[in-house]
Design brief:
With 522 residues, the protein is mainly alpha-helical. It has helices at 13-23, 27-40, 45-57, 61-74, 79-91, 95-107, 113-125, 129-142, 147-160, 163-176, 181-188, 200-209, 214-230, 234-250, 256-269, 272-277, 298-306, 319-330, 337-350, 370-376, 389-397, 411-431, 442-447, 449-459, 506-512, 518-521; strands spanning 288-291, 311-315, 358-361, 381-386, 437-441. The protein has a 5-stranded parallel β-sheet, sandwiched between helices. The protein is globular.
């Protein structure tokens, strides 16, 4: 959740205008202003830096590469230019190069708060939360009136489990800017709210004032939904979640049918015969992939495994998909599976995996690539986490994913995608060997933690260690949406929570019932 946007130095009015347009989310205006600046002065590295940001947000990797390289060529020791190159490399899946570029940026740091914040954000993306926290602290010390710096510090503290400190810094960010929706959203998640200690009045007063931007209102609505549900104000909780989802859904341009088509195309292409006849990949490493839909228990399973002394988590890397896309771009007519496996392992190693341990990758979208993972990394193990269909969908619907999982903001689109995911899960179950793929239900872990944990550890071929039962005591950072929940022992309060909203979830339930037996939806 750390914000990686940079604040550019300089007093030129045009650069200030471009920066303001970018901060407001107006990419077209940002690009137009930067084009005018570069027309007058092609050597303005700040304009190239902003164009790097807009290109990344638009998914234009080639343009981002050109802009980032020109910014660095014009300002080779400027930490902001260097960190934007690091960001571009990270988004492209070039993790080792991104690490090196971030370290280069850190070597040129002074005490400019914008640079401290930007480099800290990159360390956060790379999973180095303690280094990120230290840079954010320095940025806040220099500019305690900047809400972004306070928010980024709070986000890093959330990831390392310093939840009280995170709440203090969210409060400070909101004191600087009452309309800072991201800080409200983060703060709502830091603890279970109570009837005598919550932020409902404060946030609902902001809504009534009508001064929030659309992105700010979206984040506030999701924050209110979470806090209302905490204190069992079920109707108000759903009102806010639904309002937030409607606002977010209207801002999206993606085609839900295309996402489902992608799933069905994978089922058609990655058959048992294709997997068995594929060229052998890299078999010497045995990574663990924990995957599934968001909010279904994947972080819990990851933390259980990572509590074993022989395991280390690299978090959500997106590295396998990045290497697959790069291989397809380089060889449009085919894929070199061994090369994909080798490059993926190199990316993981760049994330500082200790010697003599296996690593866990918890990238959620890897459920799309189980067949390719099996082919590229034949010794890998895959754990697919499942959850009750309506509990899954309600947990997804009430969460905000900041640019990911665009199907999640509309009940019938969410149900359609869930059904596609269910078809894909059944396909993997049919085509992958049982010693490669394990499915585990979140409810089974809640019901009998010891038995489920033993099943997981046995599947991975590891000796039992009692420490896996105390996963919540781990000090390891967690950058997932469940970073707060995994600091607690297993609890059952999330099981069946959808029932409080059964009537208002009727569109979702009716769509699911077209393909899922009634007994599975009860």
């Amino acid at each position: 959740m750390i914000r990686v946007n940079v604040t550019l130095p300089g007093s030129a009015a045009s650069i200030d205008a471009a920066g303001s347009a970018f901060a407001a989310g107006d990419l077209a205006a940002t690009e137009q202003i930067c084009a005018r600046i570069l027309g007058q002065n092609p050597s303005d590295w700040r304009a190239w830096a902003l164009l790097t940001e807009t290109a990344l947000l638009r998914g234009r990797q080639d343009a981002a590469t050109v802009s980032a390289d020109r910014a660095v060529a014009l300002a080779p020791t400027n930490p902001i230019a260097l960190v934007l190159r690091a960001k571009r490399l990270f988004v492209a899946g070039e993790t080792r190069q991104a690490c090196a570029a971030t370290e280069a940026a850190a070597q040129h740091l002074g005490e400019a708060p914008a640079a401290l914040d930007a480099v800290g954000a990159m360390f956060g993306l790379l999973g180095l939360q303690q280094r990120a926290r230290e840079l954010f602290r320095r940025a806040v010390a220099a500019r305690p009136d900047m809400p972004q710096y306070l928010f980024n510090l709070a986000a890093a503290e959330r990831m390392i489990g310093a939840l009280s400190d995170a709440e203090t810094h969210c409060d400070a960010a909101i004191a600087c800017d009452r309309h800072y929706g991201l800080a409200h959203y983060l703060r709502s998640d830091l603890r279970i709210q109570s009837s005598d200690r919550n932020h409902l009045d404060e946030m609902e007063a902001l809504l009534r004032e009508g001064q929030l931007s659309a992105p700010g209102e979206i984040m506030l609505r999701f924050a209110l939904g979470k806090e209302c549900e905490d204190i069992e104000l079920w109707g108000r909780a759903f009102d806010h979640v639904e309002a937030g989802c409607n606002l977010q859904h209207r801002s999206l341009s993606r085609d839900p049918a295309a996402q489902i088509g992608e799933v069905d195309a994978i089922i058609h292409a990655h058959t048992r015969s294709w997997i068995e006849s594929a060229p052998r990949g890299r078999a010497e490493a045995a990574p663990i992939f924990v995957t599934g839909l968001p909010r279904t228990g994947t972080t819990l399973v990851e933390r259980i495994i990572a509590s074993h002394s022989a395991m280390h988590s690299v978090g959500e890397t997106n590295a396998f998909a990045a290497e697959m896309r790069r291989a397809m771009a380089e060889r449009p007519g085919g894929r070199d599976l061994e090369d994909i496996g080798m490059r993926y392992l190199d990316s993981a190693a760049a994330l500082r995996v200790p010697d003599n341990v296996r690593f866990i990758d918890k990238t959620l979208e890897n459920y799309l690539y189980c067949g390719l993972i099996r082919a590229a990394l034949p010794s890998a193990k895959i754990i697919l986490v499942q959850r009750h269909p309506i509990d899954s969908c309600w947990a997804i619907y009430k969460a905000h994913f900041r640019g990911k999982f665009s199907f999640s903001y509309h009940q019938t689109e969410l149900a359609d995608y869930y059904l596609a995911y269910r078809r894909l899960s059944r396909h993997w179950r049919a085509v992958l060997p049982p010693d490669v793929l394990m499915e585990i239900n979140y409810e089974d872990i809640v019901r009998d933690q010891a038995a489920a944990s033993r099943d997981i550890i046995r599947f991975l071929g590891l000796p039992w260690e009692d420490g896996v039962m105390r996963f919540h005591e781990s000090s390891a950072p967690s950058a997932t949406a469940s970073a707060v929940q995994v600091r607690r022992p297993i609890y059952a309060s999330s099981v069946g929570k959808w029932r409080h909203h059964a009537d208002r979830l009727r569109p979702l339930r009716e769509r699911l019932a077209r393909e899922i037996p009634e007994a599975e939806l009860a």
